[in-house]
Amino acid sequence: MQAKAGRSASAGKPTTSSPGLDKILLAGPDLLVRARVLFCATEYLGAKCARSWLFDMRRFLRLTEEDMPFSERGLMESMTPQQRLMFEGQYLRTAKSRTVGLLLTLFLGGLGAHRFYLGQIRFGILYVVFVWTLIPALISLVELFLIGGRVDRYNENHARELAERVRLHGAAA
Question: What are the angstrom distances between the C-alpha of 120 and each of 98, 126, 162, 167?
């Protein structure tokens, strides 16, 4: 019989219903504290609900400061460790993928799917309205070469806004 997050009476080791959570619990108190802080940040910022927090934690554990682009590391320099955890957790969930942007541009570019993906709703609507002219399809062929930079700029702007929100939240607490 296993508990959700208790200790096994016979082995003295943590036992859970999830093997991923066992690894977190066995890794030590620092990692467990990081997991709890990430879970609290997830609930505060309203991103994903409790049933998917373990998946987010796995993604978070693989992230190191070397993996993040320079701009994100620079944004995190003046943050407290708790603010960094909040920032990293939210950034991982909301950052856009260059691959997804490229695939949307390639296959659904004529409908403006890549514009909707990047939050450019007005341009997306223009693509949909003029799809019958095939002009959006031609434009999307050119945008295949530009979408990587646009996704990077979106992620950078989003990271700056997110860092401001995290700092404001940390100052209020």
Answer: 16, 10, 18, 26
C-beta neighbour count of 81 within 10 angstroms? 11
Residues 90 and 170 in one domain: yes
User: 38 with 89: CB under 8 angstroms?
Assistant: yes
Mean pLDDT of 123-136: 96
Q: pTM of the predicted model, to two decimals?
A: 0.60
CA 15 to chain centre: 28
Domain that residue 15 falls in: 1-62
Q: What is the DSSP letter of 112?
A: T
Q: Answer for the pair 90, 45: CB distance below 8 angstroms, yes or no.
A: yes
Long-range contacts of 53-56 (CB under 8 A, 24+ apart): 54/18, 54/20, 54/21, 56/89, 56/92, 56/93
Report the domain count for the chain: 2
Q: What is the pLDDT of residues 14-42, one digit of tens each?
A: 444 445 544 444 444 455 455 555 555 55
DSSP state of 95: P
- Could you tell me if 120 and 50 lie in one domain? no
| Among 155, 5, 161, 171, CA closest to 82 | 171
Q: Which of 32, 62, 92 is where one domain is finished?
A: 62
Same domain, 78 and 146: yes
Q: Are residues 52 and 113 in the same domain?
A: no
